[in-house]
Structure formats: structure tokens, C-alpha cells
Design a protein that fits this description.
Layout (H helix, E strand, L loop, with lengths): L36 H10 L2 H18 L2 H11 L3 E3 L10 E3 L2 H14 L19 H12 L6 H17 L2 H11 L10 E4 L15 E5 L2 E12 L5 E8 L10 E6 L10 E6 L10 E13 L6 H37 L1 E2 L2 E2 L4 H32 L3 H32 L10 H9 L9 H15 L2 H15 L5 H23 L7 H22 L7 H11 L13 H10 L7 H4 L5
Parallel strand pairs: 3-6, 4-6
Antiparallel strand pairs: 1-2, 4-5, 5-9, 6-7, 7-9, 8-9, 10-11
The structure holds flavin-adenine dinucleotide (FAD).
Length: 592
């Protein structure tokens, strides 16, 4: 038997639901779509009835896969990271990366079966006669990532590379690349990636040292890319400085770098080594040396960074979705465990401290769910031509990336703790979730870089918060089933958060407050969204309780030397931790 072939591990899908010998079960075998009421309700709201009808079976199928086969493959791929071979067996400098068969099977599910990379660019994915809306794509990413995080990088970066080629490349370059990149045949398709970071700087993109020289009508790149995820992609989008171009970001051009040239030979670059990473271990990140590699200019030479930022922003949104997904997995795992583990004669979910712990990990997960679906819907409206929606998306994207990725870290740790010592052991998914959570605050901009983008550029320059303000005000006006006093409280908090963000944007001396101001905007936005969601007919009214928790715990002042266990919160916890249906009439008294 091939030692690298995926095997059904005895501890995976077949885990008995009751657990064994006192050990609480995990989510193996669950359908992550079927058990996610919030997701199902919101998809029914944001998608057209026809799209929802056609896509619901695919959400359901992926939900089942994510709790089953995909989860099992992810576990194996994480334990068997990719291996770089610098030469082939004939001694030629034909580097290649060896992946475990489990990773290859996940690629088949993602690129072949679901066609994530192409689903919003062309018809044909999932039997649809039209491209999918962004809401559906990100919902599918959300389900996929509840099982496998590492592969979502290659999936997403192929999708976003296609976007850039379609938008900025010449017709000739599009004709060359797009048929391959949009293919649903995994054996033939070309996958994409994006290389920017060099030793001199990741945040400080203007310090890029890679050069581009025009030789006999062909661009040739030389340089050293320090962080290259999906290192063996078939085509990489990267930034380089054409000879003679000015220093800083203005002199950077965008290029498409194929792994193989038109005659089939290898392009002149090498993967020097793979990174030994804390998380995302199933996916290969490497260092790449460009030795006069042939590349194609994409768009205008002096617009490189501006064009690349479109890809960065799309990736940022996807990172927010991935953080939401991992937090959901954490919540699911924690709930399953808390409902069956016994200590001191009781099931642990019955203990007040543990109930609070569960709420603390559930709240950020619910916030991120509301935020990413609203952002995706805003993207769909922007794509349909709404300038207001495009402006609103400008701020929603870094808000989601910044806060959801940060929240993912304590949520993963909290979920690990709910499982006790077993949560620290790599046989259980919590340990991987803790490791994977941390990359979210690094790639596509650290927390500081995203917070500065929100405050200095989205608020200070683009005034994008004005579009957000208008969208949220409308939602609050429409949420007429919610008590007026609660909506007024939200309006006042929204005004204060916007004022604070504007002030930080306007006063250079307040730059160190950028993260606080960005967090305030995120929290109040999520609270308004969850309130509006609770107000809809046949909605899960409990979402408004999450909104109140956000107001109290994320946006309100608290005295660390006074009790926090208020009666309203105990009543709210009772409802939020149960699975029963709650209507708005039952919770009106808890919304003040
Ligand atoms: C596993 C992994 C995979 C990656 N894959 C890719 C990839 O495929 N392609 C790619 O291009 N990059 C990739 N990266 C690189 C990643 O995007 C960078 O590491 C990240 O942008 C930070 O850049 P840096 O490492 O140079 O840190 P620096 O930019 O040196 O930052 C160091 C610290 O300084 C802070 N800082 C910097 N400037 C400011 C400022 N103005 N104000 C306040 N604080 C500041 C940062 O927030 C950070 O905390 C990857 C990274 C990792 C870890």
C-alpha cells in the first residue's frame, strides 16, 4: 500500500457520537451546513429565491463533506506537509513539490468538483448557467474552511488572480492564460498565486528590490521573493520594478510569471526552500529566486500596486471569511464537547463559568458571520454597478480582515480550553485550529497595516464610512419590530464610533488609536447587522441578543471590580445556548 495514500483513520469520521470512556465526542460526521441556523437563514435572505433553491443542495453537500471526508483529508494533509525536491531524478534543476494524496484529493474536490476558483467568473460551476454571486462563493468558502484551511489559500489566490487578469491584462495575455486558469479539469488547469513580500519588507511594499528588464521585447525578472504561498503555482502575479522606474510604490509594475514557458520548459526561477510553518501546514509556502525569469506585464507599468491592491482586498475579504469559518468550527466543537463532558457530576455546559466561556467564543463567530455575508452582498451590489456599495465595501473589507482574524485567535484558544487537555493534543482538531488561527494577523497585511488602511485611507481619504453609515442607518430604520429604545442606543453608538474614527483619521497625534477606532467601527457595524437580521420575519430573533452583548462587552465601559453577571445576561445565555426557536416578542424585554 502507498504509504502516502489517504487512509480512513479510525479516529475520524467513525467517531461514536457518544464519545467513549468519558471522552466527549467531536463534530466528526456532522453536516456543518445543516447545523448552522444563522448561515441558512442569512443565505435565504441574501440570495435570490432561485439561486438559493439551486444552490442549497450544494451547500448541504459541502456541509456534509466538511464534517466528513474533507475533515479527514485535512487532518491527514496537516500531518504530512509538502516536500520540496530541488531536482528531478535526472539531476535537472526541475524543482517540484510532492503533496500527500490527501491534499490532492482535496484539490479535486475544490477545483474539480466545486470549481471555487472559477465559480464567480463563468457559468458551469455547480451546474449553474451563470456565474455565482459573491454571497454564494464566500458561503461555500466558509463551509470548506471549517474542515480545511491551508488549501483555501491556493483556491482563493487562483480566483483573485483570474480577477486581475480579466480586469487588467491585454486581450492577448487573457487569451493565453484564462482558458487554462478557468478550466475545471484539475489535471490541465493552471492555478494562480501572488508574490509580493521580500526580505526588505512585507508591509513596506515600496521597498521591493526585484527588477524587471526588457530584453528583445520580453520582460525578464531578477530578485528574491521571501514569502511565496502556493509556491509551485502555474502562474504567479507579482510586483517588480522596471529598470529606470522611480523608487517606492510608484515604480512598481504588475507581472504574470508562468511556471512553464510556451515550449513547455521551466521558467528561470527556483523554489529555494519551503518554510517550516506554525500553521497552514498542508500548503506549501516557499522562497523563490528569480533568475531572469520571463514574465508578462499586466496593465499599465505605473499602476502595479494599485492593480495589485484589488487582489489584496479580495484576499482580505476571503481571510475574514476564513476566520469566520474557523471560529464556527471552534464553536461547533466547543458546544458538542460542553453538552457531553461531565465533571463533578454535571454536564459542563451547566456551569455558569463555562456558559460564559461558550458565549465569549460564540459572539465573535456570529459577528463575523453577519459581517462577511453583508460584505459579500455589498460586493454583489458593487459588481452590479452601485458606487455607494463599492465605497461601503472599501471599508467593510479591511474591517472584517482586521477584527475577525484577531478574534479568531482567542476563540481558538477558548475552544481548546473547553475540551480540556485533549484540546491540546493533535489528534483533536482544536490544536490545528489554534495553530492556523495565527496566520490571519500576518498575511495580506498585519493588524496595524489593516487598521491604518481603515482609518487613514478608507475613512480619511475615501470617506467610505459615510456609505457604511447610510447603509446601517437604513437597516436600523427598517428594523421596526425591534424596540425603539434599543435602536436609538445603536444609532447613538454608531454616531460615536464614526466620530471617533474621523477624529483619529484627522489628527496624526492619534495614530496609535487606529486599532481601537477600527474595532469600534467593526463592533457597532456587526451589532446593527445582527439587530436587522433579528427583525426580519421568521428570523432567529436571538441575533438581537448578540447585538446587545456586543454593546455591553465590546463597546460599553465596565468596572472590573463590579459583578458582570447580570440577570438579563443569564436569561440571554439560556436562550443563546439552547437550540430552540425564539421570536422577537420573547426577547423585547432583554433589549434596552
Ligand atoms: C505563512 C506565510 C505565508 C505568506 N505568504 C505570502 C505570499 O504568498 N505572498 C506574499 O507576498 N507575502 C506572503 N507572506 C508575507 C506576509 O504578507 C508578510 O509577512 C506580512 O505582510 C508582514 O510583512 P513582514 O513580515 O515584512 O513584517 P514587517 O512589515 O516588517 O512588519 C513587522 C511589524 O511591524 C509592524 N509595522 C510595519 N509598518 C508599520 C506601521 N506603519 N505602523 C505600525 N506598525 C507597523 C507590523 O504590523 C508588524 O507587526 C506570507 C507570510 C507568512 C507568514
Amino acid at each position: 500500500m502507498d504509504a502516502r495514500a489517504p487512509r480512513t483513520s479510525p479516529d475520524a469520521a467513525a467517531t461514536p457520537r457518544r464519545g467513549a470512556d468519558h471522552i466527549a465526542p467531536d463534530c466528526a460526521g456532522e453536516n456543518f451546513y445543516a447545523i448552522d441556523r444563522g448561515l441558512r437563514d442569512l443565505l435565504a435572505h441574501y440570495l435570490t429565491a432561485e439561486d438559493f433553491r439551486q444552490l442549497a443542495p450544494h451547500f448541504d453537500r459541502l456541509g456534509r463533506l466538511a464534517g466528513g471526508r474533507l475533515d479527514e483529508l485535512a487532518r491527514i494533509a496537516d500531518r504530512h506537509p509538502p516536500v520540496l525536491h530541488p531536482r528531478d531524478r535526472f539531476g535537472r534543476d526541475e524543482d517540484f513539490i510532492d503533496y500527500h494524496a490527501a491534499y490532492r484529493e482535496m484539490e479535486q474536490i475544490a477545483f474539480g468538483d466545486f470549481q471555487f476558483h472559477a465559480m464567480t467568473h463563468r457559468a458551469g460551476a455547480l451546474g449553474m448557467d451563470r456565474p455565482l454571486p459573491a454571497v454564494a462563493k464566500y458561503a461555500l468558502q466558509y463551509l470548506f474552511v471549517q474542515a480545511e484551511f491551508g488549501l483555501m489559500c491556493p483556491i482563493s489566490v487562483t480566483d483573485t488572480s483570474i480577477h486581475l487578469i480579466r480586469k487588467f491584462a491585454s486581450t492577448e495575455l487573457q487569451d493565453y492564460l484564462l482558458p487554462k486558469m478557468l478550466s475545471g479539469d484539475v489535471a490541465l488547469m493552471w492555478k494562480g498565486t501572488q508574490f509580493m513580500t521580500e526580505r526588505a519588507g512585507g508591509s513596506d511594499v515600496g521597498s521591493i528590490e526585484t527588477t524587471a528588464r526588457l530584453e528583445n521585447g520580453e520582460w525578464r525578472l531578477s530578485g528574491d521573493k521571501w514569502f511565496c504561498s502556493h509556491a509551485d503555482a502555474d502562474v504567479a502575479l507579482l510586483l517588480a520594478r522596471p529598470e529606470g522606474a522611480p523608487a517606492g510604490t510608484k515604480g512598481l509594475a504588475l507581472f504574470a510569471l508562468p511556471r512553464r514557458l510556451k515550449d513547455g520548459s521551466r521558467n528561470a526561477y527556483r523554489i529555494v526552500r519551503l518554510k517550516d510553518k506554525l500553521g497552514t501546514r498542508s500548503m506549501a509556502s516557499g522562497e523563490i529566486l528569480l533568475e531572469g525569469a520571463v514574465a508578462y506585464l499586466v496593465g499599465q507599468a505605473d499602476q502595479g500596486l494599485k492593480q495589485m491592491m484589488e487582489q489584496v482586498n479580495l484576499s482580505r475579504l476571503s481571510h475574514g471569511v476564513r476566520a469566520a469559518a474557523m471560529m464556527r468550527r471552534c464553536v461547533n466543537e466547543a458546544m458538542v464537547c460542553a453538552r457531553s463532558r461531565a465533571a463533578f457530576g454535571n454536564t459542563i455546559i451547566d456551569y455558569p463559568l463555562l456558559r460564559r466561556q461558550l458565549l465569549k467564543i460564540t459572539l465573535p463567530a456570529e459577528q463575523a458571520l453577519s459581517m462577511f455575508l453583508f460584505a459579500a452582498d455589498t460586493m454583489d451590489r458593487a459588481n452590479a454597478g452601485s458606487a455607494d456599495a463599492a465605497n461601503c465595501l472599501r471599508i467593510l473589507t479591511p474591517l472584517l480582515k482586521f477584527r475577525a482574524c484577531r478574534d479568531n485567535i482567542p476563540v481558538a484558544t477558548g475552544a481548546m480550553e473547553v475540551r480540556g487537555g485533549n484540546g491540546y493534543i493533535e489528534e483533536w482538531v482544536q490544536a490545528r485550529l489554534v495553530r492556523d488561527a495565527h496566520i490571519g494577523v500576518l498575511w495580506e497585511g498585519t493588524s496595524n497595516i489593516n487598521a491604518l488602511d481603515i482609518i487613514s485611507r478608507a475613512v480619511g481619504k475615501s470617506r467610505a464610512h459615510k456609505s457604511l453609515q447610510a447603509a446601517l442607518a437604513k437597516l436600523l430604520d427598517e428594523a421596526t419590530t425591534i424596540p425603539a429604545a434599543f435602536r436609538d442606543r445603536l444609532r447613538r453608538t454608531l454616531d460615536r464610533a464614526l466620530e471617533f474614527a474621523e477624529r483619529v483619521a484627522a489628527e496624526p497625534a492619534l495614530e496609535a488609536d487606529a486599532r481601537q477606532a477600527a474595532s469600534g467601527l467593526y463592533h457597532v457595524t456587526s451589532a446593527v447587522l445582527m439587530t436587522a437580521e433579528a427583525a426580519r420575519a421568521s428570523a432567529d430573533a436571538r441575533r438581537a441578543l448578540f447585538a446587545r452583548l456586543v454593546l455591553e462587552h465590546r463597546l460599553g465601559a465596565r468596572d472590573p471590580l463590579a459583578p458582570q453577571s447580570h440577570a438579563w445576561e443569564r436569561a440571554a445565555a439560556e436562550m443563546l445556548l439552547s437550540e430552540r426557536n425564539v421570536v422577537i416578542g420573547e426577547i423585547g424585554g432583554l433589549l434596552v
